[in-house]
Amino acid sequence: MAGIGFELKKILRRDTFSSEMKAYLYSALISSGPWVMSVACIAVLGLYRFSGIASFDYEVFRATVTCTFAFSLIHVGVFQLVVTRYLADRFYAEDERITLATFITSSVIILCGGVMLSVPFYMMFPLPFGYKMLGVILFEIICGIWITMIFIAAVKNYNSIVYAFAAGVTVSIGGALLLGKYYGLTGYLLGYTIGQAVILYCLISRLLVEFPPSDPWNAGVFRYFRKYWDLMAAGFIFNLAIWVDKFVFWAAPDARTIMQAFITHDLYEPAVFYSYLTIVPTLAIFLIRIETEFYDHYRSYYARVTGKAPLSAILQEKEKMATRILRSVRDVFVVQGGITLLGMFFAAELCSAGGLTPLHIPLLRVSLIGSFLMALFTITVIVLYYFDLRRRVLLAVTILLVLNTLLSFFTTMMGIQYYGYGFTYAYFFALLTAFYMLYDGVKNLEYITFARQPV
Amino acid sequence: MRSREHDVCFILEGTYPFVTGGVSAWVHNLILGLPEINFTGISILPSASEERSLHYELPDNFRDMQVIYLHDHDLVSSKKKNAATVKKQVNAIREFHDKMKSKEYSDFPRLFDAYKNGVNGLHVHDLMYGKEAWKILTDFYEKYSRDASFIDYFWTYRVSHLPLFKIMAEKLPQARVYHTVSTGYAGFIGVMAKYYFNRPLLLTEHGIYTKERRLEISTSRWIPTEDEQQNRVRRELGTFRDFWMRVFRSMGKLTYHEANFITTIYDGNRLLQIADDADPKKIAVIPNGIDVEQFSGLKNSECPDIRGIQDEFVIGFIGRVVQIKDVKTFIRACKIASFQIPKLKVEILGPTDEDPDYFEECRELVHILDLDGILTFRGSVRVPSYLPQIDLVVLTSISEAQPLVILEANCTGIPVVASDVGACRDLLLGLTPEDKSLGPSGMVTKVADPAETAQAMVAILSDPALRSRMKEAGMTRVRKYYTQRDLNTKYLSIYRRLMEAKSPEEVEAWRV
Lengths: 455, 512
Fold this sequence. Notes:
heterodimer, A: 2 domains, 15 helices, 2 strands, 79% helix, 2% strand, globular, B: alpha/beta, Rossmann fold, seven-stranded parallel β-sheet, six-stranded parallel β-sheet, 19 helices, 45% helix
């Protein structure tokens, strides 16, 4: 009999819809959670800056902590999303045994990179050796916290995370104030570092409880760096874009050099950091919305796709899902909008309560709008990750980076009354891009879902 | 590799030289029989991952064979193209399909143009991942398969069409005539080659491809079905089986439309081809032929009963142990016959590894019927060396064209009991009045009827005079109507005619 027709049994249907995009969400939320907490921590210490140590020492300390957070987030940002994706895929394949091995492997890589970054950095400072040592250790600990968070996110044990941070931040504040009193600047940093070490310790012990012991090495994750280079790039660029306006302001003519590369911008920095704190409710609301409403429809959309539903039923579910996204965004808009408006209204009161000068008031108002847009942008990016639209995220965060750099630079040139508009407009345009891409992505979702499947 | 001037390029799907069987033997013998023609070939196999070895020693005049693996693909992304160009090209596909829906198969040249255009041509990538192709797909889905499972529809499209897209990108060998030995993917390659090189296409069908695929599809368990318990053959095929059938049917009709000349081995096939819109004017029936010399004098020229009253008989079953040959009916018939012929031996000659599950079921049946001592599976063997000891050949196939086995058995002087499929009746009872006057050289029985098959077996074996008459009739018939020499002559004249044509348009219908 002539003809092979179709000996295709082997190549027919493969179940290629990895549905664990959820991990992105936790990863993104959870990494902004502690970061916001850190800002809060510095803010609290700032309130007590006249107690314990000299004002100059406090500024060195604050610059140390700010740099540590900025660079550790950018550094870990390179790895964060790729490792998250790798874990999600392995979990989907019900292979949990690689978790600890992957944790150790990526920790080794990230921490080695951390040493190479932080040691040369501290070399240039005329600080006591002990302080510089602590600086490096703190950087490693903070990096360690970010890595551990990626893995803890997979466990979805949020309480343990909250407790860890609550305990750690308390110890940090108490330790810094206490040890600072007796041992000066180095003691201050030591106290703070001990608190962060407590966080790391709690998180790692949680991790060891949750996952089975395994080999110390797993190179499987390295393949993912090549395959998901776009995730690597997007993670790095997003984190860099979040910080780049601060860097630009450090280079501004009216920035103040504390010591060597420790620079601060007395006007810009505190206002922006304070405004960041207002987006906490948004992220919380979004987490709940996503969890309760959107994710159900997201799941049943893919369930219909794989469950042999006709196209019309798939499209129906897509419509429902799109409605939920809109509703979630609307809720965020209302709640965050309310908070932001309140913040703008009471800007003067906030400034005096936070120890800022009246000069900060207009800047704080603008920054509040910028933070509002930042919250929306973060959410949009998370939803784009949900649909695995990685290239679109990459484009959006690249636009953000470029605009935030350029516009912030222009505002430093244009004068004090324009401060804050740079990053606000950067987020505005980046948000428009991301929104459009999300709209387009959802519009073509069924096409993307099917036609993008590898043959 | 030196490029040669080839006269004829065979296009072979799942057959020569990697798989043994009637078609492969036919191709092999034709190549051997026409040493003055330079042959080349394209052999289509499913995938390189399945090891295949040559089953024939390739003749000297068959060179530079190219193997195309239908299901292996390497989807490199295409050059970025103007969206309007892609839209236009994809529209050619849409119109081609729309025309096929209204039984119009003349639109291929336009489709071909959309592909041929070098780097600007339509690329597999556009068709698998592109937005325009997606639009067509969903449009057709809404139009023809509205409520079917979309993911199954989508994958059925991909799996059935990807080979076509792959074929379209393939670089084909140049020859003066393209000779495809089936429709289907091979036929499609033939049509492509016709337009690439502007050379005529000859189609020879042994079995009707679409009919065979239909059988295969209706029994396959891997095509998604709406109700999961569909293991038996049904008239209604269901959405996805229908989809597959439409694909195969369209390829068949396209090949019929584009072929400049069509041959088949018996009249029943010709009628099926005409039923599928093949132009009767360009179809010729050229029966199978065998090398008479090879089978002459194998068997004692005298009747077996010269040894006195024979009570020990050997029955041969020559063919692959697969479902389509219905070996189980044969086994059951042997059981029934063994009640009347106590000293019965049964030899099953043919490969058993093609469908291991079916083979296992057959072995089990043999065991249950207590035929272990009588029936032997010999596997792949050289048939001529077994023929001398065989008294009767039995064929119980569900589907056949014009089995060489019957010709070989008859030529050797062995009567045959065959199921009434394909050209078996013509071979055993005669086709024309003159042919019929030679007398029967065996008996035909109903398909899947063990009792009737057994009855025929017993009737022939227990009547020495009948056997003798059948033996004579068979030997004469084969020598008169079914020789390889006749076949060679006819194909040589077809080849010459097509080779000399300046272009496919010049070929006109003629009688062979």
